[in-house]
Model the fold of this input.
Amino acid sequence: MRTTKSTYCLFNLSKPFVVCLALMLNWGASNAQQTKMYDVIRNDNKVGTLKTSSVNTSMGQMYYIESFVKVWVVINIKVNYNQSNIYKDGVLRQGAVIRTVNGSTKMNNNILWQPGGGYICLKKDGDTVRHKEEIKYSTAMLYFAEPINLSRVYSEGALAFIPIKKTEDHTYELTLIDGNKNYYTYKNGVCVKVKAETDHGTVYFVAQ
Done:
């Protein structure tokens, strides 16, 4: 992941995201990583896992999130989620997120910082979104750093800033675009539990 070709493929907005993920994993394997695992709990049953990784690279600090969830709601629903960001000098430089449901891609967003021109964001359907404001904290970072004194964070899924507020000591409420809310709880600055409202009920992500 250190060649010019690999770097291009990682965030070339015309390339399939699955290629990006493979390159990221290969790159991360050659660097020291900090990894944390979470159990995904629904109705008191474990229905999946979530893995977070942080690695310091020559391009900046990379954050990577990967999850797999399988639930029964009339039919089996299998959800795969992969997200990766690179921050440099405290600013988001590149990001990508993909979500599939039963093998069908529902979300595939790519985010690229262009010096002097802000961000260009590409959605699965080819639509683009542009932002001028620097992104210094996004939803991916919620697993790695407590959002102290923040009132909003950038959502890689919604491609927009969304509100966050402190509800009690070391617990924060994130309001999603669809009105659902997620609650993040921290210990020693690291996320240890997430309570997520979804269209299929409440799901918990609990650190192992």
Observations:
- DSSP finds two helices and 14 strands in the chain.
- The chain has one domain: 4-207.
